[in-house]
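Ticket #268: bound-state structure for PXL.
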Amino acid sequence: MKLCRVLTIAGSDSGGGAGIQADLKTFTVMRAYGMSVIAAVTAQNTMGVQGVYPLSPEAVGTQLESVFSDIGADAVKTGMLFSAAIITEVATKLRKFNISNLIVDPVMIAKGGSRLLEEEATAALKDELLPLTTVITPNIPEAEVLTGIKISTISDMKKAAKKLVSMGVKAAVVKGGHLPGEPVDVLYDGQQFFEFTGQRYQTKNTHGTGCTFSAALTVGLAQGLDLSAAVEQAKDFVSLAIANGISIGHGHGPTNHLAWLDRAHEVR
Ligand code: PXL
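RESOLUTION: The complex was predicted; output attached.
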């Protein structure tokens, strides 16, 4: 298989379970060439977020110029972007370099409650990033903030996915993990709905699941899978990573990106 170039534009997680670190681990075990543009640095461990240090919009813009002007990318994902000014800078460069395969994980708040996106940056996310987005991957609280729809059923998830498409994205995956029962993710591609049912694992080691899912989706799309196949593969990837989560630290441990490699060994 051709070695695809994939880029994440996101925040650094010093604890290694989420953000840039989760993305690069996912890219690597899925056999893609990973690149990273850092929007913010977080001081973080399994217990929570101890500090958030955004980079200047200029620093983000220069990193993007460096990558796009020389190397290019087959697909790009965004994670923690933190501020309206950083979002504006990212959108400007994505337009300048005609980036067409864009996966947006609209990261807003960490598990412990720390803001990874300033409240006043939601408007910039909607106005500037959504029109450039191939597929957006909100969890239920994020989908509620973006659409204004209260979500408590799969039918509500479908309404929200459809509304996101009306707001400018080509497709939306609303992740159902926050609803009780078996986790169902809903994909709307502008024409059809797809439902993906997973298994719920009893574990506290779930730090970085959203980042890992969207990173796996980014690789699938870069490698040429169609959207529903890429979502299915990403769900398999994150499910294996959760099922084999790592008990380190004193709080929510990370998921295990290496589980995908072990499965590959078993399959062979
Ligand atoms: O999973 C959301 C997320 C994204 N990016 C960074 C994070 C987190 C969650 O803690 O730390 C950097």
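RESOLUTION NOTES: The mean pLDDT is 96.
TICKET STATUS: resolved
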